[in-house]
TrEMBL record:
<keyword id="KW-0808">Transferase</keyword>
<comment type="pathway">
    <text>Pyrimidine metabolism.</text>
</comment>
<dbReference type="GO" id="GO:0071897">
    <property type="term" value="P:DNA biosynthetic process"/>
</dbReference>
<comment type="pathway">
    <text>Purine metabolism.</text>
</comment>
<dbReference type="GO" id="GO:0005524">
    <property type="term" value="F:ATP binding"/>
</dbReference>
<dbReference type="GO" id="GO:0004797">
    <property type="term" value="F:thymidine kinase activity"/>
</dbReference>
<dbReference type="InterPro" id="IPR027417">
    <property type="entry name" value="P-loop_NTPase"/>
</dbReference>
<dbReference type="InterPro" id="IPR020633">
    <property type="entry name" value="Thymidine_kinase_CS"/>
</dbReference>
<comment type="similarity">
    <text>Belongs to the thymidine kinase family.</text>
</comment>
<keyword id="KW-0237">DNA synthesis</keyword>
<keyword id="KW-0479">Metal-binding</keyword>
<keyword id="KW-0418">Kinase</keyword>
<dbReference type="GO" id="GO:0046872">
    <property type="term" value="F:metal ion binding"/>
</dbReference>
<feature type="region of interest" description="Disordered">
    <location>
        <begin position="43"/>
        <end position="74"/>
    </location>
</feature>
<dbReference type="InterPro" id="IPR001267">
    <property type="entry name" value="Thymidine_kinase"/>
</dbReference>
<protein>
    <recommendedName>
        <fullName>Thymidine kinase</fullName>
        <ecNumber>2.7.1.21</ecNumber>
    </recommendedName>
</protein>
<keyword id="KW-0067">ATP-binding</keyword>
Length: 287
């Protein structure tokens, strides 16, 4: 593997390029487009064939091209865990603390989650904070106002992040290019412990990742998983304690095994009942 940049030398002079590489070709073709902070304008190499005024022109041109990169870098913080583990509570605390320190904040949640209240994020303990309930994250900038987004917003909280298909693109752009701090709360896994939406895709671009735990409803131990108590099998199913319970690993494994069998039995019986005009109902937890 070849090291292209040596940390001990100034960035532009430290490239070891034995023959034209993609990097040097692009650099020549676009006349110094690399104006992100790592490539400081003061270090533009002096070219004996250029006058100092044409160097100044180059620097001005480069400075104007650097605008998209001129926002200070933002941050991405991801908070995951099963249901009832305190994700919304944690998001709320961090948002309040950012606001107390003078930052301008906004919170977004998926409009799919219509439990409790449409215009607020609400914890399972009833704490609330006003939010934008949206179908996707891309619509946020327009709804908030492009100007207000650019100039009057520092911190964005996102709750129920598993429901946003454009989560990864939105967060990366907000933090990398727009200098925003993004705090993301969502389920890492669904009721079958499969990755949920694109929350986990954020891990490589996140500054911090926190996995919270709840208490197992059966034995009181640490609960890292969510068990669905009803017969439904679709991935997305909005609900609270009437549908889901937090469980530890051993109660997930035993419960899920029994529930899957019960779902299969119910499927078969509902098919039989459908032909007789009856309907199957919900399951009881198998503990
Ligand atoms: N089985 C449960 N049913 C209802 N509420 C619960 C249950 N277990 C814990 N809670 C409460 O939910 C709170 C966490 O709520 P919240 O922050 O909304 O969690 P999350 O966003 O992770 O679902 C806990 O502090 C606890 O008081
Ligand atoms: C496990 C699981 C959950 N959901 C839904 C249920 C709730 O509406 C939200 C999670 O809310 P919380 O703030 O984490 O309590 O997600 C789902 O649709 N599918 C699932 O498998
Ligand atoms: Zn348990």
């Amino acid at each position: 593997m070849r090291t292209l940049i040596s940390p001990s030398l100034p960035p532009l002079f430290s490239l070891h390029l034995p023959r034209p590489s993609l990097f040097s070709t692009a650099l020549r073709a676009s006349r110094y487009p690399l104006t992100a902070p790592a490539f400081s304008l003061n270090r533009l190499p002096s070219n004996p064939h250029r006058s100092s005024s044409s160097r100044r022109e180059l620097q001005t041109e480069a400075a104007s091209k650097s605008k998209p990169f001129s926002a200070p870098p933002g941050e991405i913080h991801v908070v995951v865990g099963p249901m009832f583990s305190g994700k919304t509570t944690t998001l709320l605390r961090r948002i309040l603390s950012e606001r107390e320190s003078g930052k301008k904040v906004a919170v977004i949640k998926s409009d799919k989650d219509d439990r409790y209240c449409a215009e607020s994020i609400v914890t399972h303990d009833g704490e609330k904070f006003p939010c934008w309930a949206l179908p996707d994250l891309n619509s946020f900038k327009e709804r908030f106002g492009f100007d207000a987004y650019r100039n009057q917003l520092d911190v964005i909280g996102i709750d129920e992040a598993q429901f946003f298909g454009d989560l990864y693109e939105f967060c990366r752009e907000a933090a990398d290019k727009e200098g925003k701090t993004v705090i993301v709360a969502g389920l890492d896994g669904d009721y079958l412990r499969r990755r949920f939406g694109s929350v986990l895709d954020l891990v490589p671009v996140a500054d911090t990742v926190t996995k919270l735990a709840s208490r197992c409803e059966v034995c009181g131990k640490r609960a890292s998983f969510t068990l669905r108590k009803t017969e439904e099998r679709e991935t997305e199913l909005i609900g609270g304690a009437e549908v889901y319970m937090p469980v530890c690993r051993s109660h997930y494994v035993s419960g899920q095994g029994v529930l899957e069998t019960a779902r299969a039995v119910l499927d078969a019986s509902s098919q039989r009942n459908a032909t007789r005009g009856l309907e199957a109902t919900s399951l009881s937890p198998p503990f």
